[in-house]
Amino acid sequence: MPTTAHAFADATASDSALRRFLHGLPGVDAVGLEARAASLGTRSIKTTAKAYAIDLAISMIDLTTLEGADTPGKVRALAAKAVNPDPTDRTTPRTAAVCVYPDMAATAVAALAGSGVKVASVATAFPAGRAALDVKLADVRDAVAAGADEIDMVIDRGAFLSGRYLKVYEEILAVKAECGTARLKVIFETGELSTYDNIRRASWLGMLAGADFIKTSTGKVGTNATPANTLLMLEAVRDFREETGVQIGVKPAGGIRTSKDAIKFLVLVNETAGEDWLDNHWFRFGASSLLNDLLMQRQKLSTGRYSGPDYVTVD
Q1: What is the DSSP letter of 67?
Q2: ω into residue 72 within 30 of 0, thus cis?
Q3: Closest to 224 (Cα-Cα) out of 273, 171, 172, 285
Q4: CA separation for the pair 241, 207 (Å, rounded)
Q5: Which residues contact 68 (CB under 8 A, 6 or more apart)?
Q6: What is the pLDDT of residues 85-123, one digit of tens each?
Q7: In which residue ranges of the chain is pLDDT below 70?
Q8: Which residues on adjacent β-strands are paired with residue 122?
Q9: Hey, which residues are catalytic here?
Q10: Which pTM was predicted?
Q11: Which residues fall within 8 angstroms of residue 40, CB to CB, at 6 or more apart?
């Protein structure tokens, strides 16, 4: 595997060079990967560690609404929940961000002003990514102009799956250039990539192109974040930092709904990438309903009982 920045530059010099590099990555032992993910998921933690993990998970959530029926009122309500997740307990951490469509970014920015909660906006013809590059870049420009702190882009899975890796690489570069100071999360839609080898290749492709985060999925397909595909991406960012000194974030999204699930993912982070990633600058959960369960479990730990069904808002 290349060990210098110059070697990586050579690897992205042409479509054939990039293909050689990506297909030269070590193959994934699917059985071993899934066994390790399952093993780490059985780790038990003490009550004090669980309380810490729940607060950490809350602070890592990108509270998300990405529906055709989104309204300014819904976005403002979600922003209020992000800033003050539990009105009965002001010690509850704020979430990391609120994630919306580009046309709702300005509403989210206004609602979150001064709170420290970031505004993330999906872009590049999310979720399918089926649009011309100039349309995708206009999508990004709109979100950035509206004040988005972070851009979540989708890759062209059709180009990737047909082996046109340089097209995907150049598209990520172009989007990154439009982001300005906004951080870029690159979404692979792992459920459509079919194999773990493809997920590893997409991870390296995204990182080589300048992603600040690599993200599993849109939440709009049948298979989204899993312990195994997230473990594989954590291995990729760990190895990339060892090779380059550059740290990249990871964001599993879709299907993570319970505190138990979230804690399993945090164990994966700690045991695979390490403590440096146990911070919302480097690890996020793309979720909406997850926050409700975390709040319920948090209250159970502090009071010894579960609250009624009206304790949390239904998003």
Answers
A1: -
A2: no
A3: 285
A4: 10
A5: none
A6: 999 999 999 999 999 999 999 999 999 999 999 999 999
A7: 1-7, 307-315
A8: 152
A9: 152, 215, 251
A10: 0.94
A11: 227, 231, 264, 267, 268, 271, 272
- Pull the structure tokens for residue 266: 């945090």
CA distance 274 to 266: 10
Q: Which residue has the tokens 């300048």?
A: 210
What's the distance, Cα to Cα, between the start and end of the chain in Å?
Answer: 45
In this structure, the dihedral spanned by the alpha carbons of residues 67, 69, 72 and 76, taken in order and rounded to 10 degrees, is: -50
Q: For residue 17, count other CB atoms closer than 10 A to its CB.
A: 15
The answer to whether 163 and 128 have CB atoms below 8 angstroms apart is no
Residue type, 49: A
57 Cβ contact list (under 8 Å, min separation 6): 259, 262, 263, 266, 285, 290, 294
Contact indicator for 95, 117 with CB cutoff of 8 Å: yes
Residue 4, both tokens:
């210098």
- With tokens 């990108």, the residue in question is 62
Report residue 150 as tokens.
């972070």
Pairing label, strands 285-287, 118-123: unpaired
- Mean pLDDT taken over the chain: 93
As a whole number of angstroms, the distance between CA 108 and CA 216 comes to 24
CA distance 34 to 48: 29
* b (16+ CB within 10 A) / e for 174-204: bbbebbeebbbbbbbbbbbbeebbbbbbbbb
